TrEMBL record:
Belongs to the Fur family. Its cofactor is Zn(2+). It is found in: Cytoplasm. This is Fur family ferric uptake transcriptional regulator. Its main location: cytoplasm. Keywords: Cytoplasm, DNA-binding, Iron, Metal-binding, Repressor, Transcription, Transcription regulation, Zinc. Binds 1 zinc ion per subunit. InterPro entries: FUR, Fur_C, WH-like_DNA-bd_sf, WH_DNA-bd_sf. It comes from Actinoplanes xinjiangensis. Gene3D superfamilies: 3.30.1490.190, Winged helix-like DNA-binding domain superfamily/Winged helix DNA-binding domain. CDD domains: Fur_like. GO terms for cellular component: cytoplasm. Zn(2+) binds at C92, C95, C132, C135. The keyword Iron applies.
């Protein structure tokens, strides 16, 4: 039986390996996790996998476009399987929680530059910053 992950790996000429499949499964269930969290998730399935192996897998998957790497300012790099749809992220300033926000217009670049300086612009990197619902409620409890 060929899984969807195997098909995707073969489509970009990557060999199908257990660590690669495990990383893809981990990111499917847990979007926007950092390298350490990915390592923990993969180790629950493959206890002997090394940090370097997971790091290499993440790099190979990111380089081939199977995984998207995002890095909000001041945060560690996070990874996710949702690629090629130009979705954006909303990031909590207090706890760093991240959620997906669909592109406002549906395709990149979703913002028109007021002056493109002659550049051919293909993307606008949009990050929404704010406070997540759980941090908002923690804060209001503290005020009572
Ligand atoms: Zn928060
Ligand atoms: Zn996302």
């Amino acid at each position: 039986m060929t899984s969807d992950f195997e098909t995707r790996l073969r489509a970009v000429s990557l060999r199908v390996t257990k660590p690669r499949l495990a990383v893809m499964a981990a990111l499917t269930d847990h979007p926007h996790v950092d390298t350490d969290r990915v390592l923990g998730l993969v180790r629950s399935e493959l206890p002997t996998v090394s940090h370097q192996a997971v790091y290499d897998v993440l790099r190979a998957l990111t380089d081939t476009g199977l995984v998207r790497r995002i890095q909000p300012a001041g945060a560690t790099a996070r990874y996710e399987m949702r690629v090629r749809d130009n979705h954006h992220h909303v990031v909590c300033r207090s706890c760093g929680a991240i959620a997906d926000v669909d592109c406002a217009t549906g395709n990149a670049p979703c913002l028109t530059a007021s002056d493109d300086h002659g550049f051919v612009i293909d993307e606008a990197e949009v990050v929404y910053w704010g406070t997540c619902p759980s941090c908002v409620s923690t804060r209001s409890e503290g005020n009572q």
